[in-house]
């Protein structure tokens, strides 16, 4: 059941998986085309879609490709509340169970090994797991990050409840001992982090990641550049797939040496040969990583701004007087771009070319696509000339699942 829920295509030969994904992307573009037609835009091109849709680009790695996995702690099928794995079922139906990820095709063996060791540790612990915050308990989820260089980072989330500093220090010491000298030492962790968290998700600012053992960062290489990764920095989950994606984005941007690239939601920063790169990212630690990455790789033409794109971008572009061509690349989360970001891009005359990278084009991104392409709308303060979709390329960043990463090129 777990494999079917998380990786529904795992039984299909890989070429068939790509075909299934292509069909679902085609449906998304049929929807976009009709949405644009409803706005009075003559959107239909050859093939009945608003722009050419290329075949899905295959992932270079099909199994065990994930460089980051999040494991939950909850009751297993046997009722043991100290089970580490992935959820099956729904909270509404009240049938959630936590199932070990051993047979998941997309999770690498190293992640499964760390999860197994964490389960062994919490089963030895005298403290309860924290399944529901208001019911007490402490041990919560585990995040494992790995790189192609053989580095492994583990991040344990812990609910402190009413524990004092001394009791917390004891638990941290036990966790560190288990993973450095005890049975968990087989994992050979590069970094072991601990986060005391009273919320579902905490940023470093809300609750610092505490390094218990090893190096503060792990390192990855993409397209010959070295990247530093912090515990909460965004990095594409499929490293080899990301190389193919970034190469294509670099080519589609048609950015020459006089081009300024505006990279919204830039994560740890991926770079191309341009005159200037401006990155915006909400996660402070990711911006620190991006600055380090640029300096380490000898790239001096980057400037990074930390903060929400909807706050930073309007400020940045309101006084824009640079005559150089400006290409925008946006790579938002599933929530899509904030309306103020779309409005700022629309109203900035210098942006003639826009690359939208979406991990869920059928969701909020669809609203963004329509806002970028609709006729000028004074009521919504969309004054700038509309964009036109020119080319769509889906990338299979998530083999065995139903998801795709879509790169959509807009020009005006």
CATH class placement of the largest domain: Alpha Beta
SS content category: alpha/beta
CATH-level-4 superfamily name of the largest domain: Vaccinia Virus protein VP39
| CATH architecture type of the largest domain | 3-Layer(aba) Sandwich
> How many separate helices?
9
Low-pLDDT sequence parts: none
Order of helical and strand elements: HHEEEHEEHEEEEHEEHEHEHEHEE
Strand content: 15-25%
Q: Note the overall shape.
A: globular
Could you tell me the radius of gyration in angstroms? Answer: 23 Å
InterPro entries: Methyltranfer_dom, SAM-dependent_MTases_sf, TRM2_met, TRM2B_chor, U5_MeTrfase_fam
Active site: 359
GO molecular function, one term: tRNA (uracil(54)-C5)-methyltransferase activity, S-adenosyl methionine-dependent
Domain Methyltransferase: 258-316
Can you give a write-up of this model?
- GO terms for molecular function: RNA binding; tRNA (uracil(54)-C5)-methyltransferase activity, S-adenosyl methionine-dependent.
- The strands form three sheets. The chain has a seven-stranded mixed beta sheet.
- It has 412 residues and is of the alpha/beta class.
- The N and C termini lie far apart (47 Å).
- 29% of the residues lie in helices and 23% in strands.
- It contains nine helices and 16 strands.
- The protein folds into two domains: 14-60 and 238-411, 3-Layer(aba) Sandwich (Rossmann fold), CATH 3.40.50; 68-216, OB fold (Dihydrolipoamide Acetyltransferase, E2P).
């Amino acid at each position: 059941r777990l494999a079917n829920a998380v990786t529904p295509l795992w039984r299909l030969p890989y070429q068939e998986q790509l075909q299934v994904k292509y069909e679902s992307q085609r449906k998304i573009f049929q929807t976009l085309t009709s949405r644009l037609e409803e706005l009075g835009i003559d959107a239909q091109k050859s093939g009945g879609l608003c722009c050419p849709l290329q075949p899905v680009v295959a992932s270079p790695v099909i199994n065990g490709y994930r460089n980051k996995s999040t494991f939950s702690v909850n009751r297993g099928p046997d009722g043991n509340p100290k089970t580490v794995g992935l959820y099956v079922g729904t909270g509404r139906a009240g049938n959630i169970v936590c199932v070990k990820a051993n047979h998941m095709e997309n999770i690498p063996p190293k992640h499964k090994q760390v999860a197994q060791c964490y389960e062994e540790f919490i089963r030895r612990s005298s403290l309860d797991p924290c399944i529901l915050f208001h019911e007490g308990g402490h041990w919560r989820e585990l995040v494992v990050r790995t790189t192609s260089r053989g580095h492994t980072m583990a991040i344990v989330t812990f609910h402190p409840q009413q524990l004092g500093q001394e009791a917390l220090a004891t638990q941290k010491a036990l966790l560190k001992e288990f993973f450095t000298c005890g049975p968990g030492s087989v994992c050979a962790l590069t970094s072991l982090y601990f986060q005391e968290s009273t919320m579902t998700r905490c940023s470093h600012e809300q609750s610092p990641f505490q390094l218990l053992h090893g190096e503060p960062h792990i390192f990855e290489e993409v397209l010959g550049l070295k990247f530093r990764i912090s515990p909460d920095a965004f990095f594409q989950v499929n490293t080899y797939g990301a190389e193919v994606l970034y190469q294509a984005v670099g080519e589609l941007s048609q950015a020459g040496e006089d081009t300024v690239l505006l990279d919204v939601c830039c994560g740890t920063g991926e770079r191309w040969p341009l005159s200037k790169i401006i990155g915006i990212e909400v996660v402070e630690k990711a911006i620190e990583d991006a600055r380090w990455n640029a300096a380490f790789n000898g790239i001096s033409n980057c400037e990074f701004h930390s903060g929400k794109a909807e706050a930073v971008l309007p400020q940045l572009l309101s006084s824009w007087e640079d005559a150089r061509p400006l290409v925008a690349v946006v790579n938002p989360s599933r929530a899509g771009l904030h309306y103020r970001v779309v409005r700022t891009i629309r109203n900035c005359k210098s942006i003639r070319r826009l690359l939208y990278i979406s991990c869920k084009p059928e969701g909020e991104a669809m609203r963004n696509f329509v806002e970028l392409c609709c006729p000028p709308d004074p009521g919504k303060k969309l004054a700038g000339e509309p964009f036109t979709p020119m080319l769509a390329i889906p990338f299979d960043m998530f083999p065995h699942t139903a998801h795709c990463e879509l790169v959509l090129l807009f020009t005006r």
